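User: My instructor asked us to take a sequence, write out its structure as tokens, and then describe one feature of it. I'm not sure where to start. Here is the sequence I was given:
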Amino acid sequence: MATTSSFLFRALEHVKIAESWNCNLHVQTLLDELRPVPGSCDYLIAAGPRALVGRGLQDAQPFRLEVFIGRSHANVGLAAHLDDADQNTIAVHGDERALHPIDLSLFIRTCIRRAPEGNYRLTWPTRFRLVDTDPLEVLVQHQGDRMFLEACHADLRPAVQTHVSDVYGHPLDVPWLYDPLDYEVMIPILREPHIRRILDLGCGSGRNAVPLENAGYEVHGVDSAPESIEICRHFVRAPERFREASAASLPFPGACFDAVLDVGCLHMLPDRVSRATAIAEVWRVLKPAGFLCGRALTPRAPDWLAAQPFHAVATGFTAAEISKTGGFNPRILASTQHLIYYQLLKIA
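Assistant: Let's start with the prediction itself. The structure tokens for your sequence are:
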């Protein structure tokens, strides 16, 4: 099975971050599937049918699976682990009755993206098929009762970069559509009992809004990409609460949210002036004693930006910039080499 030193190392980093915080019982319940058995490292990347948490999804919609890191699960549609004999072979298995071809296409990308850099051989039963339009299809070969392909991170890069606002038109090229859910980013929200109304800043396809809705929160969302809002409205319970808008001009009255969630929005703004404008808007719509919490990339090199499916001039911001945010009491909650988990508490 997979070990913490190989296949799921980066995923388990997030679990360790979450467990290092003082989580209440509600948060610990959410993390049950992520918690290891003492003395064991038998983690899987797994995915259950998204229809269990969505509403009336169409086959053509991306992100039909809820991907998570865990052990076994009653509603698994697909699971993957490293082959015991060959640590560069990832074996995929599951119940094809719960699957559509796009599920396998997205899940294969999850496996490649979560593995360390390198070339991997992925295998799965012949009864599973990739979606016809999948660029990885040309790499697939047949061997007995198994299909296989050899791929690495570079094989997930699209031939042409698109503007970030257009990237949702090509769901197989959007890496955050096939990452596990961001439970660790939600912890500051989940551990505060007074929070009821949340704004998901840069809500994308609704990957974080859906579990928050399921936990009983009133969730609103904005995103500057119209296609992402169209997708998001298929997933969420209250589609009328999600709209196309800029973080620099939020379409809400002042002091109306208990918390704002930022997963991948502010770090995509091109400069400090843009981020300061957006953060001022967040301050305006937060209630007294409200807070912004999120996860941000630190600044990345030009070669990293060039490898992304979207065109961006710059990305990321630093702990030093966060610490100088006006109107807020800033806190750095945790950090890894390329990520910062932070919280900004509104100063009335």
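For the description part of your assignment, you could build on this observation: Residues 101-114 form the longest helix (14 residues). Try explaining in your own words what that tells you about the chain.
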